[in-house]
């Protein structure tokens, strides 16, 4: 018995497998599988009018076909049209049947790019079809679809045509479309699959045609509805409220040698309110490097503790997790808060003792890395989980932590600011607090781009800065030699710099040092027992040495914008004028040149994040999606901001008054991947 086709028409299992590789598993997927571009097969060009570089279609008869062997085996075909124009056709890859097909006198249509050859104009590997003089030409532009190995354009076109044969009901009421100024869905889809000859090609190719705008809006609306459903589902869950009691939090604020900035105070008020709610907080606290997120996170932990609950403070690397621990343990202990430290590198007895304190409820606050959720230990009464640099943790890891408590509140932190459009689209299921100002006293950082050929000048600058009492970082991307990348390594750089700068105390820190060795080097640097610290990117986040006012980043062209900005933020923390030198190797790729231009021109993390989004797009910027939502195919977050705002408003309207519309719309775009129902 044959398995039923997932489509409304017969599709063989082999073909279904190929379609599934493209995410095409039902008729609706084929309808939304839109062309990459269109080719004009509606007209013929006489061979005498062809120009090199032009893509054209000719109708011609075969004069001769033969296999040539110089410089490599190929099939060459000479064709002539009715006006006497002669064109060469070459196939570098062909089957024996091709030679039999191209018999003298047989007529074909060839479409491809025209090139200038030794013997005149030619086409290499054109598309072709047998055609008589009276074979009609298409009346519409021909779509070219994204495809996969073994799935030809002709097959895809036929499948899409079959899917388009049925009516396409609109998911949105006509009155709403009129208000939004958007065209009908069915008309938009048919136009995009088969544009008429008079279609505005510039608008089609730039995705600014009203038909594209309709598709972009629908895609954004489906995304907003799914995220809104996730948010609604969360607000229906119940957890223990942790209202503000102003005991430990006020005591902690009184110990600080500074006042919170207005942005910190605003973020803290938002978090404190969320913690008091009976449903789990899911809030992202974002702020530029050095904006004071850790203090706000500490206040959140104290609010949980003053309600009799425990808190977990987690960071992606041991050096950062330990820095949080060392920075907060002493002031919190002075308030009577019992703190535990859990790391994978601890001795077994130490880790067991830490987990004993956590499991018994003796420890109020636990600091750690992924060991906090990978270990078999349990919390007695986990009320809040703080996750620093949240983008480095997979959703599975965070879920493992959530199992340590009964739906605890979550505060995620990021020093990589999220562009507004990205927050509106991919993080709409989270509440976002933004610290958008730096504490007073932070000195501006001067960024310099320097070719590696001027390395001696940079060495002189480092020597001069350290002799004047300052300290410096020298950052390298790898620990040991890589034949593939041929990058300067931290170990070799440390040895070289120590020899070249014998009057300076040069230290080395990298990710493969044992934790106690790493901590000893960092402590020596903080105590100014080291002048120049050679480091890998382990110092990217969290390291705070106010006297270090100079940073040199080796092979800056190999690093991403967020990483460069994070590294640069390690200087500028004291009163000295701070400089970040980006050493780069020529030649630079276009992307590397664009990245270095951005980091040179901008110091604001939010603008850098926006530029990064423009350069890379949301898929690469976010990494693997953590909520299961697919990446946008038709909408562009920079171009379609107005559509995104409309989609957000319509999503709220749908869920409030027309849940049936919401369910139908998400079903079309996301299938079963939704929590919406029509009931």
From TrEMBL:
Belongs to the helicase family. RecG subfamily. It catalyses: Couples ATP hydrolysis with the unwinding of duplex DNA by translocating in the 3'-5' direction; ATP + H2O = ADP + phosphate + H(+). Signal peptide: none annotated. InterPro entries: ATP-dep_DNA_helicase_RecG, DEAD/DEAH_box_helicase_dom, Helicase_ATP-bd, Helicase_C-like, NA-bd_OB-fold, P-loop_NTPase, RecG/Mfd, RecG_dom3_C. This is ATP-dependent DNA helicase RecG. SMART domains: DEXDc, HELICc. It comes from the Bacteria. Residues 454-614 form the Helicase C-terminal domain. Its EC number is 5.6.2.4. Plays a critical role in recombination and DNA repair. Helps process Holliday junction intermediates to mature products by catalyzing branch migration. Has replication fork regression activity, unwinds stalled or blocked replication forks to make a HJ that can be resolved. Has a DNA unwinding activity characteristic of a DNA helicase with 3'-5' polarity. Residues 274-435 form the Helicase ATP-binding domain. It is an enzyme of class 5 (isomerase). The keyword ATP-binding applies. GO terms for molecular function: DNA helicase activity; hydrolase activity. Keywords: ATP-binding, DNA damage, DNA recombination, DNA repair, DNA-binding, Helicase, Hydrolase, Isomerase, Nucleotide-binding. NCBIfam families: PRK10917.1-1, PRK10917.1-3, PRK10917.1-4, PRK10917.2-2, recG.
């Amino acid at each position: 018995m044959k398995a039923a086709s997932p489509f409304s028409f017969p599709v063989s299992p082999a073909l279904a497998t190929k379609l599934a590789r493209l995410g095409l598993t039902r008729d609706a997927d084929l309808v939304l599988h839109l062309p990459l571009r269109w080719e004009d097969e509606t007209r013929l060009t006489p061979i005498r009018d062809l120009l090199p570089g032009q893509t054209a279609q000719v109708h011609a008869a075969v004069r001769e076909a033969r296999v040539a062997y110089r410089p490599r085996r190929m099939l060459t075909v000479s064709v002539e049209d009715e006006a006497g124009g002669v064109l060469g056709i070459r196939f570098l890859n062909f089957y024996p049947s091709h030679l039999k097909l191209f018999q003298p006198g047989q007529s074909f249509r060839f479409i491809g790019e025209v090139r200038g050859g030794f013997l005149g104009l030619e086409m290499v590997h054109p598309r072709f079809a047998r055609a008589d003089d009276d074979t009609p030409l298409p009346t519409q532009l021909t779509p070219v679809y994204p495809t996969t190995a073994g799935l030809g354009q002709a097959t895809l076109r036929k499948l899409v045509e079959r899917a388009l044969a049925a009516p396409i009901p609109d998911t949105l009421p006509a009155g709403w479309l009129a208000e939004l100024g958007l065209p009908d869905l069915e008309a938009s889809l048919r136009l995009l699959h088969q544009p008429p000859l008079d279609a505005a090609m510039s608008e089609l190719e730039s995705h600014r045609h009203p038909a594209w705008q309709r598709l972009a809006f629908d895609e954004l609306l489906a995304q907003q509805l799914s995220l809104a459903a996730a948010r609604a589902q969360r607000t229906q869950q119940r957890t223990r409220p942790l209202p503000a009691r102003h005991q430990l939090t006020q005591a902690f604020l009184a110990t600080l040698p500074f006042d919170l900035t207005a942005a910190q105070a605003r973020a803290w008020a938002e978090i404190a309110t969320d913690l008091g709610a009976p449903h789990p907080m899911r809030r992202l606290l974002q702020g530029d490097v050095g904006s004071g997120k850790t203090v706000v996170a500490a206040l959140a932990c104290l609010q949980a503790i003053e309600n009799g609950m425990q808190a977990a403070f987690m960071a992606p690397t041991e050096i950062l997790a330990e820095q949080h621990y060392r920075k907060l343990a002493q002031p919190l202990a002075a308030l009577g808060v019992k703190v535990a430290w859990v790391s994978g590198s601890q001795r077994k007895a130490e880790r067991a003792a830490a987990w004993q304190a956590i499991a018994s409820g003796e420890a109020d606050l636990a600091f750690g890395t992924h060991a906090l959720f990978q270990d078999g230990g349990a919390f007695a009464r986990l009320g809040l989980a703080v996750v620093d640099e949240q983008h480095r943790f997979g959703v599975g890891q965070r879920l493992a932590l959530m199992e340590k408590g009964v739906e605890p509140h979550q505060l995620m932190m990021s020093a990589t600011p999220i562009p507004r459009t990205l927050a509106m689209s991919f993080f709409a299921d989270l509440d976002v607090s933004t610290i958008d100002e730096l504490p007073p006293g932070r000195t501006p950082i001067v960024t310099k781009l320097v070719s590696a050929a001027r390395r001696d000048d940079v060495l002189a600058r480092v020597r001069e800065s350290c002799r004047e009492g300052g300290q410096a970082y020298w950052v390298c991307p790898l620990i040991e030699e890589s034949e593939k990348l041929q990058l300067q390594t931290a170990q070799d750089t440390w040895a070289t710099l120590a020899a070249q700068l014998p009057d300076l105390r040069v230290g080395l820190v990298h990710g493969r040092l044992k934790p106690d060795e790493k901590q000893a080097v960092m402590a020596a640097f903080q105590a100014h027992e080291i002048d120049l610290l050679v480091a890998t990117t382990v110092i990217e986040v969290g390291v705070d040495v106010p006297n270090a006012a100079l940073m040199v980043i080796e092979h800056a062209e190999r690093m991403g914008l967020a990483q460069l900005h994070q590294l640069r933020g390690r200087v500028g923390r004291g009163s000295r004028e701070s400089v970040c030198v980006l050493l780069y190797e020529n030649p630079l790729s276009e992307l590397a040149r664009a990245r270095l231009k951005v980091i040179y021109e901008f110091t604001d993390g939010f603008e850098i994040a926006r530029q990064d989004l423009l350069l890379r797009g949301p898929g690469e910027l976010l990494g693997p999606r953590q909520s299961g939502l697919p990446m946008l195919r038709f909408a562009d977050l920079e171009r379609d901001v107005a559509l995104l705002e409309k989609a957000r408003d319509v999503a709220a309207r749908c869920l409030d008054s027309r849940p049936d519309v919401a369910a139908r719309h998400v079903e079309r775009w996301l299938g079963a991947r939704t929590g919406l129902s029509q009931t």
